[in-house]
Design a protein that fits this description.
- 90% of the residues lie in helices and 0% in strands.
- It is mainly α.
- The protein has 2 domains: 167 residues, no CATH class; 158 residues.
- It starts with a helix and ends with a helix.
Length: 359
């Protein structure tokens, strides 16, 4: 390697490190702050073809069509999300109220029976061990009781925190709606004004990024809707075979929750399996376990494949990006990092990342 090649390598490495650093700072600290405006812009951008079509089809002013369609979009989305939220909170509340009752009816008797058997066996071996076992039993009862109370209080605290977060969430939604209105009403003026501030080469790059992001966003949505549909079908069939009441409703709820990496399918089914084991419904718990394993295996196989195919990344690269993104940036990184890597790959494939060629 010549001195010139080494020099180019160092320059390219520093440049790449700066790009990665800027991306990291943006996702970690800035992305959350601009989220309402980003959502507002995306909504306005996605609705723009419908707004233009409506204005031309019904011969109404462009601004009026924008106002009507944006209001309609946010109204339908708000009603749908509110219904899902109320349904989820109602189910969670119902589950919390049943925890103490389930403990008294199912968990406590099992522990009592277990220690009764141990005491009887210990008496035959060494009577002095009985007092130790009774102390352990009392301690265990106290610990389990404390755990049940802690679980209930933790869930209630989480719900309270979520409720306290609602005003901030509502304010963010309001800003997103207002921003959507302004972008949709004066989209051409805003874009023309911004374009004037950049050189033609930069304008071309921005347009390319915008087109790529729009295309990738729609493909992402399509892929996750397919995954959600597959999960819903698996759950509906599995729970119906296990003869669970309201199997389709429960499947729909879990499929929606499965979209959230914070909980996922396991956040619902695993505690359910444990609860059924404690109750003694071993066959039902075994059925739930098999269902959960099937869903997990299918999702882990299909998710990288589906999303990778949609955005043009190999499943192995997709898995690495999703894992690093989730660990580094949380849910935002799970989605954004693969998109960034896909865009960099696109730039490289189209010979627009010349500094890679020099390395």
């Amino acid at each position: 390697m010549t001195i010139e090649q080494k020099k180019n390598f160092i320059i390219n490495f520093i440049y790449l490190a700066m790009v990665i650093g800027i991306i990291y700072i943006f996702i970690k600290h800035i992305f959350v702050l601009i989220m309402p405006f980003l959502i507002g812009f995306i909504v306005a951008l996605l609705l723009r073809p419908a707004i233009n079509f409506t204005a031309e089809k019904f011969h109404i002013p462009h601004k009026a069509a924008a106002v009507v369609l944006i209001l309609l979009f946010y109204s339908i989305s708000g009603l749908l999300l509110s219904w899902i939220g109320v349904y989820c909170l109602a189910e969670i509340k119902d589950g919390i109220t049943r925890i103490p009752e389930a403990y008294v009816l199912y968990i406590e008797p099992v522990i009592n029976d277990l220690f009764t058997i141990i005491e009887e066996v210990s008496t035959d071996i060494d009577p002095s061990i009985v007092s130790v076992i009774q102390d352990i039993s009392a301690f265990l009862f106290k610990s389990v009781d404390s755990l049940v109370s802690k679980i209930s209080s933790t869930v209630i605290q989480f719900i309270s925190s979520f409720v306290s977060f609602l005003p901030s969430l509502f304010l963010g939604i309001v800003f997103a709606i207002i921003f959507s209105f302004f972008i949709a009403i004066d989209y051409n003026k805003i874009i023309d004004y911004i374009s004037e501030k950049f050189k033609p080469k930069t304008q071309s790059f921005i347009n390319e990024v915008k087109g790529f992001a729009t295309e990738i966003g729609l493909k992402y949505l399509k892929a996750y809707l397919i995954l959600m549909g597959i999960t819903f079908v698996e759950l509906s069939l599995g729970l119906s075979i296990l003869k669970v009441d309201r199997a389709v409703n429960i499947a729909a709820l879990i499929a929606v929750i499965d979209f959230l990496p914070i909980l996922g399918t396991g956040g619902i089914i695993i505690p359910w399996i444990i609860f059924e084991v404690i109750k003694g419904n071993l066959s039902f718990a075994f059925g739930l376990t098999i269902l959960y394993l099937i869903i997990t295996v299918v999702r882990n196989i299909l998710e990288p494949k589906l999303i990778g195919d949609q955005i043009g990344l190999h499943p192995i690269v997709m898995i690495v990006c999703m894992y690093i993104g989730l660990k580094s940036f949380g849910f935002a990184g799970l989605i954004i990092l693969p998109v960034i890597i896909a865009f960099l790959k696109h730039q490289y494939d189209t010979n627009k990342f010349q500094y890679f060629k020099q390395m």
